[in-house]
Q: What sequence folds into this?
């Protein structure tokens, strides 16, 4: 964590007015000097994470990392520590945390607002001078977005602002560094404090159906490590700040958990490490004990030593197997595979070549190697698999803000204060929602999809071919999205005669073959036994839910 902030940079880039330059040349001013560079934009980039806020000017090499929380210490009961003020605390043991986010979304504005006030103060990072680029989580609530806009435009009086997802910045940074076309298909794994998002990009736009969210993040890992240590050694349930440092310093990811557990069960093994806990007098931050260092032994005589064995790799294993702690969720690698396979066939093979890891959890040693091994075992062998881990996965999205400023039409997406005062949040939603969104028709829109178009009502056991009746509503998809009869029959295992797409009603009657009757009888038999356990209220709720869901044919391109 950076302990100091440089609000004013040492050097300033000169901005040139091209219209004035032309007038000077016409007036006879000497023009032998070199032509100035194109006017550049300097913006304040804010990556508003649930645990840390990465903030800095676009021309800075690295951001300042500030805790996004308010802390209260036992040693100083009359003072609240906001953000990086925790560095001024003499004793960080037993810190009480106030976090503004819950599951990644801002829910406590009485905590978030003071943190922003501290960061955006005049002597740190003033926001009333430059455009602000701010990140927000995927699927952010409209009410939260309106509150953010109201605070920044009305209270902080920012001249202009732009909001987007952190994965958008990571994609821009990756394509720029690797010198790839912006339309390169890729998939980004963003594993942070509260959750993990897997976001595929096709033709430079997020593919909605491929996005996956896992409620597994660094907060869950820290809490689980506290439980393990409290059960086996010391009671550290109130030492979130210290145990989070223990996790960052000692934990790692292994490729073969079974073999590592066998090694950890031995009396003398290389996995065991002694961690020196801080006393906040001589030791401000804990560290792994070095047996060969004799100079540290005198200092460590009165310190508490934490012995770590299989906790070092069992805790990060939750990222890949959440079921180990009773969570009904897939792991990160499985979610990446499912996300890739949910994309159109034409892009899957290229997408596996560009798997980008960002977020604090990706910094665990061995995370990249484990991800590659998992993907290699799940994806077809003829596909090329490449996993990219940046030098600093925590600040990688923030670094993408500089790449965003290089987009030719970036200025058109900024919302100015005058536009907000005139049109309100309407202009903001229209402007921001068009970013990274493909409004044009896909190239293969006029072609018939090769994917199977087949719906299945799991409750009633009905198979639908081009038409479905749910609550009296008929769903008639376009002819371009209706699969052929042979594809339908192969998908359902039925013997269906070939017929045109216009006879959708006749297709259902023809499908009543003997094999189809057997399938229906078995499904209806299971439904009769299961429906007896549901009351009328649950059945009506299911029908209401089904009627409110819009069904799409598989294989249709949809970009967001």
A:
């Amino acid at each position: 964590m950076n302990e100091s902030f440089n609000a004013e940079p040492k050097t300033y880039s000169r901005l040139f007015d091209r219209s004035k330059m032309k007038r000077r040349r016409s007036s006879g001013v000497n023009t032998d000097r070199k032509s100035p560079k194109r006017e550049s934009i300097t913006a304040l980039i804010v990556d508003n994470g649930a645990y840390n806020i990465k903030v800095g000017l676009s021309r800075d090499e690295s951001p300042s990392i500030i805790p996004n929380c308010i802390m209260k210490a036992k040693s100083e009961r009359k003072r609240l520590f906001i953000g990086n003020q925790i560095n001024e605390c003499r004793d960080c043991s037993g810190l009480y945390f106030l976090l503004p986010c819950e599951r990644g979304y801002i829910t406590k504005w009485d905590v978030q607002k003071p943190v922003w006030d501290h960061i955006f103060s005049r002597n740190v990072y003033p926001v009333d001078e430059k455009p602000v680029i701010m990140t927000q989580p995927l699927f952010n609530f409209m009410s939260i977005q309106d509150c953010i806009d109201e605070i920044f435009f009305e209270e902080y009086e920012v001249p202009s602002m732009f909001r987007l997802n952190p994965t958008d910045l990571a994609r821009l940074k990756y394509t720029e560094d690797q010198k790839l076309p912006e339309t390169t298909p890729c998939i980004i794994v963003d594993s942070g404090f509260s959750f993990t998002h897997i976001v595929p990009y096709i033709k430079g736009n997020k593919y909605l159906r491929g996005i996956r969210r896992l409620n597994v993040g660094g907060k869950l890992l820290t809490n689980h490590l506290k439980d393990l240590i409290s059960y086996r050694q010391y009671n550290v349930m109130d030492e979130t700040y210290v145990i989070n440092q223990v996790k960052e310093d000692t934990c790692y990811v292994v490729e073969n958990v079974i073999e590592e557990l066998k090694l950890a069960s031995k009396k003398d093994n290389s996995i065991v490490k002694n961690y020196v806990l801080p006393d906040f007098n001589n030791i401000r931050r804990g560290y792994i004990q070095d047996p060969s260092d004799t100079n540290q032994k005198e200092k460590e005589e009165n310190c508490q030593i934490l012995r770590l064995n299989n906790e070092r790799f069992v805790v990060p294993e939750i990222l890949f197997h959440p079921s180990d702690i009773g969570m009904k969720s897939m792991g990160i690698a499985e979610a990446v595979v499912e996300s890739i396979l949910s994309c159109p066939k034409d892009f899957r093979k290229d997408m596996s070549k560009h798997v980008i890891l960002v977020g604090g959890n990706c910094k665990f040693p061995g995370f990249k190697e484990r991800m590659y091994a998992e993907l290699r075992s799940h994806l077809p062998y003829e596909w090329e698999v490449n996993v990219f881990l940046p030098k600093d996965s925590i600040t990688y999205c923030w670094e993408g803000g500089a790449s965003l400023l290089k987009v030719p039409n970036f200025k058109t997406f900024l919302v100015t204060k005058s536009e907000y005062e005139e049109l309100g949040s309407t202009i903001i939603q229209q402007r921001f929602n068009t970013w990274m969104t493909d409004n044009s028709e896909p190239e293969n829109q006029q072609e018939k999809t090769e994917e199977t178009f087949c719906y299945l009502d799991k409750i009633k056991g009905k198979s639908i071919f081009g038409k479905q009746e749910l609550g009296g509503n008929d769903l008639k998809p376009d002819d371009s999205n209706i699969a052929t009869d042979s594809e339908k029959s192969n998908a359902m295992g039925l013997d269906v005669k070939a017929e045109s797409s216009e006879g959708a009603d006749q297709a259902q009657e023809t499908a009543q073959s003997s094999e189809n009757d057997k399938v229906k009888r078995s499904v209806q038999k299971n439904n009769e036994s299961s429906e007896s356990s549901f009351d009328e209220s649950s059945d009506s709720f299911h029908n209401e839910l089904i009627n409110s869901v819009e069904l799409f044919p598989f294989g249709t391109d949809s970009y967001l």
